[in-house]
Amino acid sequence: MDEGGTQRRRFGLLGRGRGKGDGMRSGAESEAGSRAESGSGTGNGQEDGLGLGMPPGGIVGSRKRAAGPAGSGGRTRDDGAGRRPDAGSRSDEWPEAASGAGGRSGDGPPSGRRPGAGTRPDGRPDSGSRPEGRDGGLDEGKATSRKRRRTPRSDWQFPVLTEMGMPPERQRLLVIIATVVGVIAAGVGFVSVVRSLGTYQPERRATAAVLTPDAVLPAVFHGWESPKLFDPVAERAKDAKPLTEKEVFSQKELTVSKKLKLKLAAKKLDGDCTQALQGEDLLQLAEDAGCTQTARGLYLSSDGRYVGQYTLINLEDAKSAAELVEQLKVLYRGGWVQPLSSGKAVFPPGGYSEAGGYALGHYVGLVWLGRVDGAEPTAKDDFVSLTLALRGAEKAVYRRVVSITGPSS
Fold first, then answer.
1. What is the pTM of this model?
2. Are residues 7 and 129 both part of a single domain?
3. What is the pLDDT of residues 304-336, one digit of tens each?
4. Is residue 149 one of the residues assigned to a domain?
5. What burial letters (b/e) apply to 341-373, b meaning 16+ CB within 10 Å?
6. Count of domains in the chain?
7. Residue 87 is assigned to a structural domain of this protein
8. How do beta strands 220-224 and 353-360 pair?
9. pLDDT computed for residue 150 by the predictor
10. Residue 18: how many CB atoms within 10 A of its CB?
11. Is the CB of residue 97 less than 8 Å from the CB of residue 82?
12. If we measure between CA atoms, which residue out of 338, 326, 297, 314 comes closest to residue 208?
């Protein structure tokens, strides 16, 4: 191998050009000129630098001269005498560099990529290469460092509290405590305002009877549904004629047995249930049931031993009557019929008595019995027979059924 080839190969391994296009070709031309100048000028084969036929000034001087003619088109890297030039500047890769002819625009390396950029002499990628954009320059978007994201401001930060040095966590706790205290204070204030307005008590019915501590109530109550016999009078619309006192209490005496009779001591017909009933719940129930009349009759036994009262209530329909009887199974403890007053017959306060309710179409019949002395009944006291005798006042309802259905029913 000739001496010129050896020198070119050595120089190619030590130097790498950083320029593109014409710059690389200018560097090659400068190299060829320096070799010719070295060979002809000395004559004795002495070479400057490392003794490899390099131009005076060494590798660095050669690279600087190579960059001069190329102008801005060729980029070189002056790393000092100890670093090798880019391997991409080898003169044997571009023929025009060895011949010294000027390079054409299409004779250089492929466009869009700089010779030697991103690669090493052994073909491996150069980790020190910098990214390029479409125009061959540096990608500013990747070259610049990303902006540091700010930590989002907490929703619980208040300028005044933050200036006082209170962290967001304590600010949040303070807001929660203040909210709870505010709600409690508002509630207390509202209650105080309501109480200051006073209490409202609805006006009682003028004739409503309110239970008193000495009110007389039955100790036992039983209720029965309406028999089918009273279906013709299931609605007051079909039986619109009002009850009369004479119609209900036409009999002055009711027979219990041959020896015992019940004599009528007092009677009263009211057009308002509030006059005959006591207890707010019972009064409201009777009003909802459409009560328009109450007929009461007070009886005293012929032997003066028993007292009884029969009450007939006129309601809107059979459904209302059945509901009233059913509700009385509970309501009788807090509401009942007002007893009629008589000098001879009276239910003693605190005494024992029994009662029963009977649905009769749109009517309700209430039977109430007790001993005059208030004692509980014994085996000699036949309350069943006394009850059947008191129900004699129901004959008025039977007569109404017959008047609607006829005698044949």
1. 0.51
2. yes
3. 999 999 999 999 999 999 999 999 999 998 899
4. no
5. eeeebbbeeebbbbbbbbbbbbbbbbbbbbbbe
6. 2
7. yes
8. parallel
9. 60
10. 23
11. no
12. 338
